[in-house]
Amino acid sequence: MSDTTITIYHNPRCSKSRATLALLQDRGIEPRIVRYLETPPSADDVLDLARKLGRPVAALLRRKEPEYRALGLSDETDDAAAAAAVAAHPRLLERPIVVAGARAAIGRPPEAVLEILP
User: Hey, what domains does the chain have and what are their CATH numbers?
Assistant: First the structure.
């Protein structure tokens, strides 16, 4: 196995996040776990995640969260504003996100993260 650090942005209350973590662990990977609700990513971290995912930040937002509507967010929200919203309201971040080196994947379904593993 490569010495690339694997990181999961994890919410233990989310079934997809728990399943993705279990999938990694079943493959012998003990990822660095970022409980992003307790330790929110900075706006720069969110921009970096979006770059590694190859998506605009607006595509990483959970549209059903009340903050999404309250902040007037949309698919048209620019990256800087969307990243600032996630930094201030981490519940907006889609989960789980797994990062392996310069690549990332959203674990929906959990198996989607397999394509980025070393």
Answer: 1-36+95-118 (3.40.30.10), 42-93 (no CATH)
